Amino acid sequence: MASLPPVLLPEKPTARDVDAVRFGLGLRGYRMDQVDEVLDRLAAALAEKDAVIAGLRAESAVPGSR
């Protein structure tokens, strides 16, 4: 049986990192459509969070914005 590389994410994953995750196929595994849906939702949530953070950082960098 061939060993597969581990599925790794960086310490602070981005939506792109989640989109790039691929799992190996096994005889008894998870339903791929469910895994794909969860990963899609996670990627969207990370992208939304990153956009909010970027907006707040940009807002705080503008002098007189508060």
Which shape, going by the Cα principal axes? elongated
- Calculate Rg over CA atoms: 17 Å
- What is the chains' assembly state? single chain
Mean pLDDT: 82
How much helix is in the residues? 40-55%
Helix count equals 2
Summarize the main sheet. none
What's the N-to-C terminus distance? 61 Å
Number of strands: 0
Structural class: mainly alpha
List low-confidence stretches: none
Elements, N to C (H/E): HH
| % residues in beta strands | under 5%
Topology:
Layout: H1 15-20, H2 32-61
Describe the structure.
- By secondary structure, this protein is mainly α.
- It is elongated.
- It has two helices and no strands.
- It is 55% helix and 0% strand.
- It starts with 14 loop residues before the first helix and ends in a 5-residue tail after the last helix.
